[in-house]
Amino acid sequence: MNFRIITDGSSDMNVDFIKSSNITIVPMQSNMEDEIYEIIGTDIEKLNEYYEFMLEDKNVSTSQVNLASFEKYFEEVLKNGEDIFYIGLSEALSGTFENAQKAKEILDKKYPDRKIYIYNIKQASTGAGLLCQIIVKMQEEGKDIEQVASYIKENSKYMVSQFGVESLKYLYKGGRISKTSADIGDFLKVKPVIHITDDGSLEVLKLERGTKRAIKVLFNNFKKNWKPEISNEVLIGYAY
User: How far apart are CA 66 and CA 64, in angstroms?
Assistant: First the structure.
C-alpha cells in the first residue's frame, strides 16, 4: 500500500533531493519585519533573505505549524488513498509535534481505513532531513510503512546531530537554550558546539575559540559516533 512521507519546514535537505522525492513539506510561518512568509527548503532566495535579516539584527522569527495546517496537508494525502508517515521537529523544541499528533487523532476517526504514523524522532534541521532521505531510500527499495516504522523506532536513537554557530543569540531568543548558556558563550566570544540531546533538546557541548577548532570537534565527534553498519548516510548542513 502506498504511503506518503510528510515532514515540516524545519527538516533541512538538499534542494535537488526535495524536488525529486515525493516528500510533502508542511511549511512553518516566518516573520520578517512583520511580513509573514511560508518558506520551505527549495526557496533558497527567501531563506538567504531571512538570514540576511538576522545578520542585520532585524526582527525575524518562526512559528510552529498549527493544527489546521496539519489537518489540511494530512487530509489531502488521505483523500488520495495514501497512508502517512510523518516525522518532524523535536517535541522538546516546539509544539509542532503535538499539533501533528492532534491532527492524527482527529483524522483517525474520519479515515479509519488509513494508517497515520507520527514519530517524535527527537531531531531537527539536518537530523530530521537525513532521516527523511533514509526513509525515501527504503520506500524506493519497496519497504512498506510498517517496515519503515520499525526501522525508525529502532534506529533513530542512534542519530547524532551537532553543529556550530557564530552566536547563541537566536537560539536563546527562540527558547532553544537557556539564557545562562547564551550569556556564557557571548561573554567568552567563542564558537559554541551544540548537539541535540537524547530527549531532543539543545545543549552546548563545548566552547571553542575559533571556527577551525570548532569544526575539528565536530569531525572528531563524527568519527567517534558514526555507525555505518546501521546506515552510511551522512548529511552536512549549513546556513547562508
Answer: 6
Is 0.85 topped by the overall pTM? yes
Residues 68, 61 contacting (CB under 8 angstroms): no
**R_g of the chain, CA atoms, integer Å:** 18
Helix axes 145-155, 125-140, angle to 10 degrees: 140
Contact (Cβ atoms closer than 8 angstroms) between residue 194 and residue 205: yes
Q: What's the pLDDT tens digit per position in 25-57?
A: 999 888 989 888 888 778 888 888 988 998 888
pLDDT digits (tens, 9 = 90+) for 61-90: 888 999 999 999 999 999 999 999 999 999
Helix (H, G, I), strand (E, B) or coil at 35: strand
Q: How far apart are CA 2 and CA 16, in angstroms?
A: 23
> Of 228, 7, 236, whose CA–CA distance to 132 is shortest?
7
Q: In the 8-state DSSP scheme, what is residue 68?
A: H
Give the separation between CA 72 and CA 78, rounded to whole angstroms. 10
End-to-end CA, the chain: 39
